[in-house]
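Predict the 3D structure for this chain.
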Amino acid sequence: MKLYIINPKPYLLQRIAATVIDYGIYSLIFGVYIYTFGDNSSPGKYTVHNLMALPLIAFWLLYFVVLEAANSCTPGHDIMKLKVFKTDGRKPGYSDVLKRRLLDTIDIFFYGIPALITIVKTPKHQRLGDLWADTVVLKSSDITVKEIEF
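Done. Predicted structure below.
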């Protein structure tokens, strides 16, 4: 049996940078898609409606949920050498990552203040999405694996 011992640290600057990288990539693709496929309703204003908006949602799910569930990290987190784990050290599943990412709207879009407060104030340095999904953001070196035999 394997026992995972985690030693979480806040990694505030790395987490902020990872989020900026990830949402920067998403925003770039979002903008290119709307510019390419959107309706030019007035000068300089492009919009997508109805079914044309579905690829934006699908890309968000692929980029944030599928990549993070499959690799334990998004490209931004990978660049910053951060990974997402369950609080017991296991890899998170799709439902865990979806829970974590659904609260991005609260954690990030209020200038990141809720995320910063909860990361600093919680013992495992979790943001709201991490608390709901029972996950932590760590570097791989923050986990020690011990083999236990009975």
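The first strand starts at residue 2 and ends at 6.
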